[in-house]
Write a structure and sequence with these properties.
With 208 residues, the protein is an alpha/beta fold. The protein has 9 helices and 8 strands. The chain starts with a helix and ends in a 9-residue tail after the last strand. Bound molecules: S-adenosylmethionine. It is an enzyme of class 2 (transferase).
Length: 208
């Protein structure tokens, strides 16, 4: 993430948007987590999203990772008061075994606040999010499409991978390819952003 995006992401307007618009939309689609839930935030940045996951979604514990060690340091400062309810690590969302030793089905919820479009192999990040979700677990996502990334302002100001970016439909199709079911509808904003929640189905009764 370049300086311009780091400043924008951590600015008060972005935080208001996240807290007052994105969180209510995601709560409407996916609801709060059950008591005792264990969550993961991929690409946690400075930790504001993880704080919202604890406070507003009701996670008991959260593991959060970021590729940028400077972000992990900032998140550590922000989240210190939560003690051992928070576990922060430096690592990639494309390999959660290496970063967190995360087995299949380890989390009740995975949160993606605008990170997967940053990852060259974005499909690997989707595959990992789906793998580590427990049956019945939920994937809460807020993403940026190729349409937005191709806008002249985005290209001039920010630094994103340019090859193989996704449309909203391609992103949703990739979730379905990994067995995740979209809950209710998906909010799409001008073809540029999408917000929604997908669930990993519980095994059929006879298969349990
Ligand atoms: C646009 S910022 C969003 C940060 C945070 N989720 C928020 O909403 O404030 C994208 C973040 O993803 C991180 N990131 C990029 N590639 C990553 C990867 N492969 N694994 C984990 N984090 C990654 C960046 O370091 C950056 O902190």
């Amino acid at each position: 993430m370049n300086r311009a995006e780091t400043a924008l992401i951590n600015s008060p307007p972005r935080r208001w948007l996240q807290r007052l618009y994105e969180v209510p939309v995601l709560l409407r689609f996916g609801g709060r987590l059950l008591p005792g839930s264990r969550a993961l935030e991929i690409g946690c940045g400075s930790g504001y999203g993880s704080q919202l996951v604890l406070q507003r979604f009701g996670a008991e514990r959260i593991d959060a990772l970021d590729l940028d060690p400077a972000m992990i340091r900032r998140a550590r400062g922000r989240l210190a008061s939560y003690g051992d309810r928070v576990h922060l690590v430096h690592g990639s969302a494309t390999d959660l075994r290496a970063a967190l030793n995360a087995d299949d089905g380890s989390y009740d919820a995975v949160f993606d606040f605008g990170i997967i479009h940053h990852i060259p192999d974005w499909r690997a990040a989707v595959a990992e999010a789906a793998r580590v979700l427990a049956p019945g677990g939920r994937f809460y996502f807020e993403e940026v499409t190729a349409h937005a990334l191709n806008r002249p302002t985005y290209r001039r100001l920010f630094d994103h991978p340019t090859d193989d970016r996704f449309t909203a439909d391609q992103f949703l199709q990739e979730l379905r390819r990994h067995g995740l079911l979209i809950l209710g509808s998906v909010t799409r904003i001008q073809g540029d952003y999408l917000l929604g929640v997908a669930a990993k189905p519980l095994p059929a009764a006879g298969a349990r």
